[in-house]
Design brief:
The protein is mainly α. It has 14 helices and no strands. It has one domain. 80% of the residues lie in helices and 0% in strands.
Amino acid sequence: MDLGVITLLLLALAFAWSMGAHYTGACMGMPYATGSIGLRPALGLMAVMTLLGAAFLSHGVLATVGLGIVRTARIGTAPAAVIVGSAFALTTLFNVLRIPTSTIQILVSCIAGVGLAFGFGIQWTTIAHLALLWVLAPGIAMALGFALTRVLDRLCRLRGVRWMVPMARALVLVGALASLAMGANDVSNATAVFLTTQRFDVFTAGLLGGVGLAVGVLTWGRPLLERVAFDVVKMDLTMATAAQLVQGLVVLMAVAFGCFTSMNQALIGAMAGAGFARGRETVQWSVVRGILLGWLVGPVAGLALGYGAGLAARAAA
């Protein structure tokens, strides 16, 4: 294994580690915030489920990202390293700023930027299809979050206090589902380039990325666990369960078709829908506006950084 491949492997694992921490709040923040699960069990459960999702459910998404965006059949390790390095740098920056941006949008824009810099053909149709999904997913999640919250509220009124313990357990289960979905959905951000370079097969790419995600959850997940749950919507058990379940289902539906969408966008949409089911005042719009700004800045920054880094790498070659 040459130095270029080792460098690419280390960058990909570091990126996966960063993403594992980045999405801790999106997957297990609400079960932890409501007291349904403790801190260490939450991180441990998420790590296991994320690894399983990455290793066994990510193959279609890995193929879409690794083989469906750049027209060139095989790119070198240098462009692949620039893609992963650029996406990793931006994701880490947003982690430090505690802004839950879309890592997926950052990655795709970095691929496009580096591809343009190296003169690779870009499958703009694939990017357009992904962008359409990114636009639709939050709206679908909002509608489902609204409807499911109303259904669960009715059940709670019928069962009263007896419903609270089963609901807390259900919230932990849907947090585990969201963690499974995250592994399947997001591992391609770090390791899909392995397919483009034809260095690893799909299963190995998913497994390696899953290990990186799980380590990120366990080692850097704690500081990011509370952001989404505490700052965006005032959530109780019913709302949290509805929002988390909708998030997992929306993301897994996209994964089933070989596509990937934003975990944060799906969750924010579902949480907003749950908030509307209770009244508009439950949604803290100043935080939502900040998150939306991050979604706009991320792709633009990814395209610019990928293009600039690609030009620099090409000139240095």
